[in-house]
Design brief:
It is built from ten helices and no strands.
Length: 270
């Protein structure tokens, strides 16, 4: 009887350990946020003038008013649209170029330096050059995102395709697996971590570049509103829109990409 109970007790103890670890993580995160907000409130109330650093008690009503007025949805939609328009371009272009470099040595030697140079340039350089060429039209942010993010996607697919195990490919050939079977059971599982990294980091970089482009010369979007509030010396408005940008970045990372990555790579935990 004790032999049958022991595994159940071990399972319960492991579950309790996981629950306690999760609880400790959430408590630590909540404590850090409370400390940050409390310090900010004290600094903006008693140490620095509120018109220079507005505390949360001033910024929060401003954020509520932005949400209530409908401006948040309108300008967030404008920024998100630019990111969505550029995503298929930089992802497909980077995937094709990276795969070509991994499969063909001549193309690898031919494109290696160009990709390295393109990846070393700051995104701000692309933004300024394209704003000079296209003005404040929608082509500037889309072009800047494509030029800045594509090299990163290229590197991910380049490394991923080159890293596919030749031993597994030979084993699949020995078992006379079809091309579709090799692609499904060998290539795609090997590339999945690189694809997820390319998507998550590509969207993260692209999101920042969209707002940065709008900050310099956009006519709509979160960055445009930050610039508009700054031109009116409305610090609380700048901080409010900056916090919205941070919140959306957190939503992309924690509530969208993290669960997707965990679900797609769940076989690694088995």
């Amino acid at each position: 009887m004790s032999v049958a109970v022991a595994p159940a007790q071990d399972a319960r103890s492991e579950e309790e350990v996981r629950t306690n670890e999760k609880l400790h993580r959430w408590v630590a995160r909540a404590a850090s946020w409370l400390l940050f907000l409390g310090g900010w409130q004290i600094l903006g109330t008693y140490i620095v003038e509120p018109f220079i650093l507005p505390p949360p008690s001033i910024v929060a009503p401003e954020m509520v008013e932005v949400i209530r007025s409908g401006e948040l949805l309108r300008h967030f939609g404008a920024s998100l649209t630019k990111l969505a328009q550029s995503f298929p371009i930089f992802f497909l272009l980077g995937a094709c170029v990276g795969t070509l470099m991994a499969l063909n040595r001549w193309w690898e030697d031919f494109l290696r330096d160009a990709v390295s140079v393109a990846s070393s340039l700051p995104g701000l350089v692309y933004i300024l050059v394209l704003l000079l060429i296209f003005g404040t039209s929608g082509l500037a942010p889309i072009g800047a995102i494509v030029l800045a993010v594509t090299p990163f996607i290229v590197f991910q697919f380049w490394e991923g395709v080159k890293g596919v195990s030749t031993e597994l490919l030979q084993m699949a050939s020995a078992f006379k697996l079809s091309r579709a079977g090799v692609l499904r059971h060998v290539v795609i599982p090997a590339l999945t971590p690189f694809i997820l990294t390319a998507i998550t980091h590509g969207v993260s970089i692209g999101w920042r570049l969209v707002v940065l482009t709008e900050l310099f010369g956009g006519s709509s979007g979160i960055g445009f509103k930050m610039r508009a509030e700054f031109s009116h010396f409305a610090v609380r408005g700048v901080v409010a829109w900056a916090l919205f940008f941070f919140v959306f970045s957190l939503i992309f990372d924690r509530l969208l990409f993290a669960p997707i990555s965990k679900w797609v790579l769940r076989w690694r935990e088995d």
